[in-house]
Amino acid sequence: MNLRPIPAADVLDADGRIVRLRPRTPGDPDALFPSGAPPHRPGTALAAVAEADGEPLAAAVLEVEGAEPKRARLHVSVAPAHAGRGLRTLLTEHLTAAAAAAGVKDVTADPAPAAEHSPLRPLLDPAVVAVVGTERPGPAAAVLRSLLDHGFTGTLVPRLPAVGEPVDLVIAAVPAPAAAEVLERAGRAGARAAVILSTGTGRTAGTIAQEGLLHVARAHGIRLVGPDSLGVVSTPNRLQAGLAAAPPRPGGLCLVAQSDAVAAAALAATARAGLGLRAFVALGDKTDVSANDLLAHWYDDPGADAVALYPESFGNPRRFARLARAVARRKPVLAVKGGGVEPGHRTGLARTAGAAASDTAVDDLFSQAGVIRCDSFAQLADTARVLVGQSLPQGRRLGVVGDAAGAGTLAADAAAAAGLGLPAFGAATLGHLAEIAPGAAAADNPVDLGPAADPDAFAEALAVLGTSGEVDAVLAVLTATGDDRDRLAAVGDALDGLPHLPAAVVAMGLPDAPLTVGARHIPVFDFPEPAVAALGRAAEYAAWRARPLGARPALPGVDRERARTIVDRLLREGGGWQTAADAAAILACYDIQLIEALHVISKGEAVAAARAVGYPVAVKAEEPDLVPKGGETGVHLGLSDAHEVRSAFADVAARIDGDDHAAVVVQPMLDAGIELAAGIVHDPLFGSLVVLGLGGAPEDRQHRILPLTGDDAESMWRSLRSGERLTEYSGTRPVDLDALTDLLVRLGRLAEDLPEIAELDLNPVMPLRYGVQAVDVKLRLSRTAA
């Protein structure tokens, strides 16, 4: 057997950070690898390392068992400081895939130590659950009854355990004043998770401060859901600890909601859609556990097929942006479209990033993160029905089989709107269809078998399409004829025989049609439009998954420590808008250069500066909190002689007279032919964003979340509506597009390392033959942005 080393690859860990997986090298010390693992023997063993910025985080060894060449054992070691980042899972997946390529069928992995277990394990997989408040009718008694009725697989305690009694999860429904005391006693008993169903604990009620509950929870290492939670559900262990009217059936969807009303509605929608849940968490007042925490937990859960989010906020926005993209690389993440987020603080980036809060920009950012954004929970449920338990489409080709021309037309129109194509079938496929249904009204796509089509015709037609290699998904459209149940059963059986092909079924006009058909639980819809739209969203997500993440480029010339020292000093001095000199000093730490700006205090100095840098020049005011806009703020451009410079100096000096923070500067003029604007803005939903746009065109902007890969950066200028101007321009007057990509990557690294950057505006940015040059800089620092 010849095991081939894994290729080096950049991946996203459970915290959404870029990690490099690489094979072992001769320079890796033995101490880096798991103790007790066999010695590394190329050909019969694989060894790999996970690292970030050259620092080893985890290592693994996979060894083929000598007597059983198709069996192997995997040993993984994760540095304690990096437990909980999903590194064990990443190494396991890559080494197992490499072993499978060499014929290894069974890999046995050493169990993960307790330190690497998810902190939410006591919440969703508890061995012992205590329910407090059951002595009176109400939520606690209802939860206890639900746990008993649905056969919770662990141990139930109908009271608060005493110190020394085992307990993992405490569920409390008590009067608000007693909530903190219950949490304190739960912590002393050793509980590691709690759900508070009681109400009136927030600031508006003024009874129990949420900060007080959080303080108690943190003191005892408890992860807290609520207060005002509708409860939690985990179907693998039958933990039906929710207050919903009907408990969900088991499945692969993980659902997060916040308020009681939304949570109840979300559960009802999943039930109507026939969706099975793996887990459901109603966050309530979200004092502690957030959607981000649950995303990190489900990243590493192999039973979680998809995650659906309906929170009213996402907690830490920087972490949400990273986590959502990391989880979406492994399984679908769906979110209900909310209202537009609030704009940023001021107009400093109105020219560069003001559109970051627009609805279109939010769509773009969700798209970059791979999050499937839906307009309603009904739409989300439809999409989840297509995604959960099915393969992803390998393309956008849809095959439609129906029994009525009108229904096929509806499906074709919906396909065009959903970005799907209905390809014409080849001669072989058309011939097979003609043999199956010689009296078919139409054999091409969409296939119309006619109203007399029997169950066998439907089944055989679907089999022909599914094995033709000409479609990436199939849709069966049935209208009421009389033998509807038999035809649905035949369709389900046929689709079960095509496990590689995602599918949906439409039953138009069929009374009491089932929610699913077949052993694969293929979803059944009432009309073609929602079914096709859901398949379209699945295809869009599959295309995103298929695109490479891109590499995290090595950036020479970066001095994080010096940049951190400068930012800390400026924050101690009050933060806010910074001088151009301080902004330039921070940018220099990331090798981002600005055009030279000479400070002058007299007409003579201005003329001398102009001669030093060379005519033509610009004379303008440099003010930390001013965004220059042409002559309105005293910017004089294209000055070609001493007389013009003296006149410009006099005008600008008069405008800033009395402002101790302002200065007059002289800069050389650059003729780049095209001007861009780039920067960083803090968005309340996604955290720090890198922004690029065409100068003077606020409607032509691109935004990207962090971390920013080289591919992300290149896609920014390629995705501008005016992006073709950059490439066309390079045909007659070269533009250094590699340098533009490098600038954006450096801005991304700057935003990662220094989250206190609330706004950074480089405007204009001049793309030149060699390199890019930023002319002006505006920088605002804020601790609240971190």
Strand order of the largest sheet: 13-12-15-14-16-17-18
Helix content: 25-40%
Number of strands: 35
Structural class of the secondary structure composition? alpha/beta
Number of helices: 22
Shape: globular
The pLDDT mean sits at 88
- What profile does the largest beta sheet have? 7 strands, mixed
The low-confidence parts are 200-208, 339-357, 627-632
Distance between the termini: 51 Å
C-alpha-based Rg, rounded:
31 Å
Provide the β-strand percentage band.
Answer: 15-25%
What does this structure look like?
With 786 residues, the chain is of the alpha/beta class. A 7-stranded mixed sheet has the order 13-12-15-14-16-17-18, sandwiched between helices. Strands 25, 30, 31, 32, 33, 34 and 35 form a 7-stranded antiparallel sheet that branches. Strand 4 and strand 5 form a beta hairpin. Helix 7 (291-299) runs parallel beside helix 8, helix 16 runs antiparallel to helix 17 (580-588) and helix 20 crosses helix 22 (737-753). The longest helix is centred in the C-terminal third of the chain and has 19 residues, at 528-546.
